Amino acid sequence: MGYYRVVGAGTWTAIFAVVANDGAGAFVEEILFRGVVFRISEEKLGTWIALAISALLFALLHLASANATVTSVVVVGLEGGVLLSAAYVLTRRLWLGIGIHFAWDFAQDYVFGVGRGVEGLVRGQITGPAPLSGGSAGIEGSLLTLLLCLIVGAYLLARAARKGNVVKPSRALGGGKVRLAP
């Protein structure tokens, strides 16, 4: 559609900084968001509420992004919160979410050169209508990216449900029978 173009060349040696930065970011964020917050909230509140909490917290984390807008923060929160949580719900392991998170950041930063200002193999430029390009927030803020992530996330959640990996809310929240004292 002509919205992406390469505007310059980077250097292949930038890969070391990008791998370290994106790898550490994906690892730490997934341990905190899925390994701790999602897992603990899912035990008590169930998968669906934990998914909403994960999306909200992931969105709040991205408020600090340089070109964040209200729309981009909501879109990124839904993309990452749903897709990465769905990967955890399906596998009950962090490796798939870490891999997806790292691959996403690495592709943006190093391969396509449209990430967070980190020099990659090329310097890319995305132009076009904000719903398609993400505007000042970048490709993560686009509705196309949101649609892609929600479709993949829904697929992973459907597979998780078939495996019996969707957790219902705890009995402590009214999910079971309440016994009254005499």
Structure description:
By secondary structure, this protein is mainly alpha-helical. It has one domain. Helices cover 61% and strands 6% of the residues. The chain has helices spanning 14-45, 47-61, 70-91, 95-111, 130-133, 143-163; strands at residues 4-9, 122-126. α1 packs antiparallel against α2 (47-61), α2 crosses α3 (70-91) and α3 crosses α4. It starts with a strand and ends in a 19-residue tail after the last helix. The relative contact order is 0.18. Residues 176-182 have low confidence and may be disordered.
Summarize this structure as a short list of keywords or feature phrases.
globular, mainly alpha, 2 strands, single chain, 182 residues, two-stranded antiparallel sheet, disordered C terminus, 6 helices
**What is the rounded distance between the termini?**
71 Å
Structural class: mainly alpha
What proportion strand?
5-15%
- Radius of gyration based on Cα positions: 19 Å
Number of helices: 6
H/E order of the elements? EHHHHEHH
Portion of residues in helices? 55-70%
Oligomer: single chain
Anisotropy-based shape: globular
| Domain module count | 1
Mean pLDDT: 86
Main sheet overview: 2 strands, antiparallel
Strand order of the largest sheet: 1-2
Task: Give the low-pLDDT segments.
Answer: 176-182
- How many DSSP-defined strands? 2
Quick overview of this protein structure:
With 182 residues, the protein is mostly helical.
Topology of helices and strands:
Elements: E1 4-9, H1 14-45, H2 47-61, H3 70-91, H4 95-111, E2 122-126, H5 130-133, H6 143-163
Antiparallel strand pairs: 1-2
